[in-house]
Automatic annotation (TrEMBL):
<keyword id="KW-0813">Transport</keyword>
<keyword id="KW-0460">Magnesium</keyword>
<dbReference type="InterPro" id="IPR046342">
    <property type="entry name" value="CBS_dom_sf"/>
</dbReference>
<keyword id="KW-0472">Membrane</keyword>
<dbReference type="InterPro" id="IPR006669">
    <property type="entry name" value="MgtE_transporter"/>
</dbReference>
<keyword id="KW-0812">Transmembrane</keyword>
<dbReference type="InterPro" id="IPR038076">
    <property type="entry name" value="MgtE_N_sf"/>
</dbReference>
<dbReference type="InterPro" id="IPR036739">
    <property type="entry name" value="SLC41_membr_dom_sf"/>
</dbReference>
<comment type="similarity">
    <text>Belongs to the SLC41A transporter family.</text>
</comment>
<feature type="transmembrane region" description="Helical">
    <location>
        <begin position="413"/>
        <end position="435"/>
    </location>
</feature>
<dbReference type="Pfam" id="PF01769">
    <property type="entry name" value="MgtE"/>
</dbReference>
<dbReference type="InterPro" id="IPR000644">
    <property type="entry name" value="CBS_dom"/>
</dbReference>
<dbReference type="GO" id="GO:0015095">
    <property type="term" value="F:magnesium ion transmembrane transporter activity"/>
</dbReference>
<dbReference type="Pfam" id="PF00571">
    <property type="entry name" value="CBS"/>
</dbReference>
<keyword id="KW-1133">Transmembrane helix</keyword>
<feature type="transmembrane region" description="Helical">
    <location>
        <begin position="386"/>
        <end position="407"/>
    </location>
</feature>
<dbReference type="InterPro" id="IPR006667">
    <property type="entry name" value="SLC41_membr_dom"/>
</dbReference>
Amino acid sequence: MSHISSRINETERLAADIERIHELAEALLPHIGDAPEIPPTSSEAAERLSALTAILHELHPADVATALEHLPQKERALVWALVKPEEDGDVLLEVSEAVRESLIEDMNEAELVAAVEDMEADELAELADSLPDKVVAEVLKDWDDEERAQVRAAMSYRDDQVGAIMDFETVSVRADVSCEVVLRYLRRFDSLPDHTDKIFVVDDHDILQGVLPIRKLLVSDPDDLVENVMARDIVRFSPDDDAEEAAAAFERYDLVTAPVTDAANKLIGRLTVDEMVDVIREEGEADMLNMAGLQEEEDLFAPVLKSVRNRWFWLAVNLGTAFIASRVISHFEHTIAQIVALAALMPIVAGIGGNSGNQTITMIVRAMAMGQLSGIQALHLLKKEIGVALVNGMVWGSVMGVISYLLYHNTGIALVMVAAMTLNLLLAALLGVLIPVTMEKLGKDPALGSSVLITAVTDSGGFLIFLGLASLFLI
C-alpha cells in the first residue's frame, strides 16, 4: 500500500511542478522572452526566473522532458534554455520525437555536440536521425574505432528492428572460471550497466555459451565453475528481429535483459527491459494515432500548418467517403419524402454499425500487435465476430424496433429497423476483421486509418441497407 501511495504522491508532485513551471514561464515571457541570459527588468521577474531555474535543476531529466511536452512553444523555448547543459542529452532522449525536433531547432551546432558527445553508442544512434550530419560526424571524430562501428551498426537497422535499440554495454565471462573469480571481476567495476540481472558466458571468440544469473551467482559455492551453474537454455535475439516481437517475448518470459547475437551466435549486444517498455508504449501510441487517421506523432503545440500536414490525408479520405454516403442517401430521396421517419432513424443504423466495427477492429489490431493472430485464427475469429454481431443485431435491433413502433405506430418501419441494424452489424463485423488483416497482408500497419475506413463503410452501408429495405417493403 505504501508503494502505491508513494507513486501517487510522485505523480501529484510532478503535476504540481509542471503547473508551477507553466505559471512562471508564462509570467516571465513579457520580461525576457525566450532569452534567459537577458537580465530581468524587475526584481519580481528575477525572483520568478530564480524559482523556475531551481525547480528545473531539481527535476530528473525524464520529468523535465515531460514538462517540456506540456508547454506551448514560446514557454518551451524559455524552459529549454534554462535546463542544465549537462542534462540536455538525457532530456533529448526522453522527449517525444515531435518535441525533440523543436528543441534541436533551438540549438546551435556547438550546443548539440556538447549535449551528445558523452552518450553511449546506442543512445547516439537513437538520436542520429534527428541530428544534423555535421554534429554526428563531429562527435564520432573523437570516438575510437569500436564505438564508431557500434554507432554505424545500430544506424544500419530500421527503427523497428532489434539492432536499432540494442545496448552494446555488456558484461561477459568465460565458462571455465570459478564463481569466486567472477565475483572478484565484478568488484572491479565502479557500477554495473543498468538492469544487469545476468552475466553473459562466452568463449574466446565471444560465441555465446549461456548466461549466469546474478541471483544464482550470489548463492553458488565460490569454487563452482561457471559452466556448472550457468543456464544454457536462454532467450536470445538477432539484430534483424522485429522489436515489437522482442517486446512481446520480454513480457511473456518476464525478462530484464536478453543477449543479441549475430548469425554466428557471437554476442554483439543486449536488450533491456526499459527499451522494451518504450517499444510497447510507442507501438500502442502509434496504433491509437493511426486508427484516428493521424500520419505520425504530433506535438500538441506544433504550428498550425505542421498539424494540418499531419492530418489532411485521412480527412480527405473521410470527406470522400462522406460524399459517397450522401450520394447513397440522394438515391432514396423519393423514399424519404414519403416516409419522413426514415430520416430520423437512419443515423441510428449507421452509428451503431460504426461503433460495433470500431470495437471489432480495435480487438483485431490489439491481437495482431501481441502476435496472437494468424491466418487460420483470423477465420475462426471472423466466425465468432459474425456470431456476436448477429446476436447484438437481433437484440438491439429488436429494442429499436419496439421504440420505432411506439414512436410511429408502423409495424413495417419497426421490422425494417430490426433487419437493417442486424445486417449493418454483420457488415461491420466482416469488415472489422478483413480491413486490418488485409492491411497487414499488404505490408501496411493494420491500424492505419482503420477507424476512418470502418466508419465510412458502415455509414454508406447502413444507409444503403436501411433505405433499400424501406424502398422494397414500405413503398
